[in-house]
Predict the structure.
Amino acid sequence: MQNSNPFEEFYRVWSAQELLDFAFSKASSKTASLPKLLPNLEKVKRKEIKRIENSVKILNEKLEKIVKSVPNLDELPDFYRRLSHLLVNNDDLRKSLGRINGIIPVIKRLEKEYRRKIGSQETAKQCAYSRTQFFGRCSSIVRKQNSILTFLEECRIKLREVPTVNLTLPSVVVAGYPNVGKSTIVGQLSTAQPQVSDYPFTTKQIYLGTFVDQYGSKYFQVIDTPGILDRPMIKRNNIEKQAILALNTIATIVLFVFDPTVASGYDVSSQIALLREIEANFAAGLDIPIKIVINKIDFATEEEISSLLAELKMNRDEVILTNAKGGENVDSVVSSLLSFFKDTDFRR
Ligand SMILES: Nc1nc2c(ncn2[C@@H]2O[C@H](COP(=O)(O)OP(=O)(O)OP(=O)(O)O)[C@@H](O)[C@H]2O)c(=O)[nH]1
Ligand SMILES: [Mg+2]
């Protein structure tokens, strides 16, 4: 896995109109320098051909830059390839890049056709007319791709936000039901300042922060994920699937966060069912340990905490009890993670 977002260089995609305005206006401003003794008609021909050549050069350069700036999706590390598929659909992205790449030779052929046409014209007016005709046909080729260009710009905006995973640090994936306090914990644990609010599905994508000690040393990265509901995989939306992807591809250890109260809006048995699914599908198969955090202890009653522990068949000292909002016991999460990483080779 590389150490930067592979979509960082994704070139800004202009609309068809912006591309055409840019190419045609630049083309007119760069005129050919011509020998004084050339006959007038010849001068006009050269000037018009030059304008066509310039516009094609400018236009195709822009289109090529877009196509070349997107990495080969098949060669991307698993995490990025699958995340990009969830965010934008890789097949649509591939197809769209192919379409844009496909119009480059079409524009070149049109350029050739009009160079010849202008070359054989007999009046200056005809030459100018041919050039306008070329601009018209070229515009129609590019305009037909406008929805593709808009889609590519949407892809660029979404993919630019993909987090950069650091290979040299272990990854703590914070997962659980919506609204249980995952982002609050991530904010307390790391440099990330994710949005926190009292409604579910506040976090809609994967965020990454780093745990840095008081001397500035980095120890691990913390991945905030969207809430996951206990339901069949096929019913899960693309927001939930990003959390599953993080569990699947980058987790060294999972912090599974519980809200033992009714504050999150979800009952404890659904949260336990989700934990069991994660244990069965990810933790066991991939050998990823799960650390249980019971959050909102400032708000929870003693009965709520004991009944959750009973259902989990765990003792108090096997879990970490936190009040993430007040920062209470977050240091226990840190020390538990640090002691885990000390004895573990985290590289997967
Ligand atoms: N009383 C109390 N409230 C908390 C605690 N931790 C988080 N909250 C509150 O719970 C609500 C949800 O917190 P978030 O951190 O956004 O929860 P989340 O799990 O990231 O939610 P999603 O991103 O929607 O899945 C917010 O109103 C927080 O202020 C806590 O320890 N005690
Ligand atoms: Mg959140």
Notes: The domain at 171-342 is CATH 3.40.50.300 (Rossmann fold). Residues 182-183, 194, 202-203, 224 surround magnesium ion (ligand 2) (CB under 6 Å).
